[in-house]
Amino acid sequence: MKHFKFPDGVTAWSEINKMFLNQEPTLFESGQGAVITGSLYTYGLTIEIEDAKFDPDFDFGKIMGYTISKWTSLLNNYLDLDSLDVLKRQIRELEKNKSVNRNYHIGFNFADSHGNGKGCLVSGIFSRMINIEKPRLSVILRASDVVTRLPWDLLLMLRLGSYVYGHENFTIELFIRSAFADDISLM
To answer: What is the pLDDT of residues 61-79, one digit of tens each?
Structure first.
């Protein structure tokens, strides 16, 4: 596993893209990844984001070509809102009680409500660990295009964690089994 730590979501996205653009040896040499017909792949990428923040001025429409309706479609496809409300109540109760152990892990699976998803978002775990002040949202992704999908994945994690925890004082940890980018999207 290749582990990288960043202060926030935009920095994570930007720095990961730079690593791909520069074909950083830690990502691509010695069986760590591959360059195949203009596309770059790396495996076992872990990204930790210290502050669950994403620049509010980041223009997803201008930079990524996405619209509000696309965001709504992604939410409706990947999130079961009823289950999310149950999860929110459980987490907030644990946080409120500050249980002695404070080492809970409550997991969830992403939905595919439209039946045509690619299963890129797999599952997540809300956790509070002993001797670590901030709670953590750990998310497992099957795959992510680091140029066009990673910022959306990061924003979704931020919003998901904020909704469940009720604040933005948590860390995000992504486990990406297969991270990729093609030369056209990198340029």
So the answer is: 777 777 888 788 878 777 8
Q: Which residues contact 182 (CB under 8 A, 6 or more apart)?
A: 38, 39, 40
pLDDT for position 102: 62
Both tokens of 13, joined, read: 């996205």
What pTM value is reported for the model?
A: 0.87
Out of 15-29, 88-102, 144-158, 167-181, pick the least confident: 88-102
Side chain identity at 24, as an amino acid letter? E
pLDDT of 101 reads: 61
Residues in Cβ contact with 141 at an 8 Å cutoff, skipping those fewer than 6 apart: 120, 121, 122, 153, 174, 175, 176, 177
